[in-house]
Amino acid sequence: MSTNLKIGIIGGGQLGKMLNQAASQWHLDTAILDPNPACSAASYTDNFIQGDFTDYQTLYDFGKDKDLLTIEIEKVNVEALRALEKEGKMVFPEPEVLALIQDKGLQKQFYKKHNIPSSSFCIYSDRADVIKAIDSGEIEVPFVQKSRTGGYDGKGVHVVNDLNDLDELMDVPCVIENKVDIDKELAVIVARNTSGEIKSFPVVDMEFNPKANLVEFLFCPASIDKVIEQKAIEMSEACIKAFNMTGILAVELFLDKSGDLFINEVAPRPHNSGHHTIESMVTSQYEQHLRAILDMPLGSTQIHSPAVMINILGEPGFAGKAKFDGLADCMAVEGFKLHNYGKKDTKPFRKMGHATVMDSDIEKAKDKARFIKDKLKVIA
């Protein structure tokens, strides 16, 4: 591996920051493109470029002097990446994979084509089409509406539990999915290098904030049967093989109350469901992503310690300059590790950081995590 390789990271949010931190351990030459000069990653690189990564020319110009390009966010200009790939640049995830995953309709069709279990679905062009399908009996309540493109961090998803929820239907091209009777929401981070080697991290289970539709707690290892754990890993590895992609793939799954597993959706990049790997695993998801895209042997995914990850969200009712309240009490907790994303301003439910709590006993780690959730508040 040459440390002279020029690597472009598209996106400078918290994922870009942590990916760049991992790259700095190997003294890799990285540059970051992001529209926000105050983004989380801006101060972690000597090569920050301010620019819109959804604009063809901006992204193309950023990439033309790089050897390798990767992403920390899916919403980027794929046509620019296709052009750069044609000119010999290494682009991971591959532009064709990224284009497919950007569209949740294409994603669902992909799972069906490759016999990868996913919930039943139909695709509609707009709100009127959805209403027509409900009136004809083609769609039955309850269901979940997902915007085909642009959804992120809980946005672009609307759950219809009864007819009163139809008032909030999105008027966009969308996927309508049968609502799964969920027992647990699980995730697997799986990596594949260009030589085809694949490794998965242990399965995690998650609890979501009901208002923000964002992960509130993540538990590793997951409290599931070994058979379910193995099946989740096998499905995730089948998924990255089917995509034939290079890098990290975060696979989110539903376990229903009958014990069946379904893939919900995927993200072809480092992911919120892998933050805990920084402290609790031999190899972090960020190092693993770099190993994969540089075609190095993949690192060990052994657990150092059971862990709970807590997303630190902006408190409801507060907007303005961010203040982490209650931090001293949390710092006194053994096994507590804080990651402040460096976002100067808070607003309700904005991701401001995360914390990982480790303990040899997962139940004790959960108790500590709930204490931290109660104590640590981001206010203004």
Question: What does this protein structure show overall?
Answer:
With 380 residues, this protein is of the alpha+beta class. It folds into three domains: 6-91, Rossmann fold (3-Layer(aba) Sandwich), CATH 3.40.50.20; 120-178, ATP-grasp fold, A domain (Dna Ligase, domain 1, 2-Layer Sandwich), CATH 3.30.1490; 182-379, ATP-grasp fold, B domain (D-amino Acid Aminotransferase, Chain A, domain 1), CATH 3.30.470.20. 28% of the residues lie in helices and 29% in strands. The protein is built from eleven helices and 22 strands. It has helices at residues 14-25, 56-63, 78-86, 95-102, 104-113, 127-136, 226-243, 277-280, 285-293, 327-331, 362-375, and strands at 6-10, 29-34, 48-50, 68-71, 90-91, 121-124, 143-147, 157-160, 174-178, 182-192, 198-200, 204-209, 214-220, 247-256, 261-267, 307-313, 320-321, 323-325, 336-340, 345-346, 351-358, 377-379. β12 and β13 form a beta hairpin. The radius of gyration is 20 Å and the shape is globular. It starts with 5 loop residues before the first strand and ends with a strand.
